[in-house]
Amino acid sequence: MKKEIITGSLESSDCLIRVSPAEKLEIELETVVREGFYEHIKNLLEETAKAEGAKRVRITCKDQGALDYTIKARLQVALRKFKEEGHG
Amino acid sequence: MRETSLATLLDKLPLQDGLTVSFHHHLRDGDAVMNMVLEALKERGLKDIHLSASALFPVHTAAAEAIREGRIKDVTTNYMNGPAASLVSKGYLAGGIVMQTHGGRARSLINKERPVDIAFLAASAIDRDGNATGSFGKNPFGSMGYAVEDAKHAAVTVIVTDTVLDKTLSEPEISAQDIDHHLVVAAIGDAKGIMSGTLEVTKDPVGKRIARDAVRLLDALGVFQDGVSFQSGAGGVSLAITEGFNRILEERKLTASFFSGGITRYHVEALEKGLVERLYDVQCFDDAAVESLAKNERHIAISASRYANPENTGRIIKDLDVVILGASQIDRDFNVNVTTDSYGKIIGGSGGHADTAEDAKLSVIVGPLFRGRTPLIADRVRTITTPGRDVDCLVTERGIAIHPSRKDLMEILCEKGFPFYSIEELQEISHRFTGRPVEAERKERIGYVESRHKEELDSLHKIKEE
Question: What are residue B436's DSSP bridge partners?
Answer without folding.
Answer: none
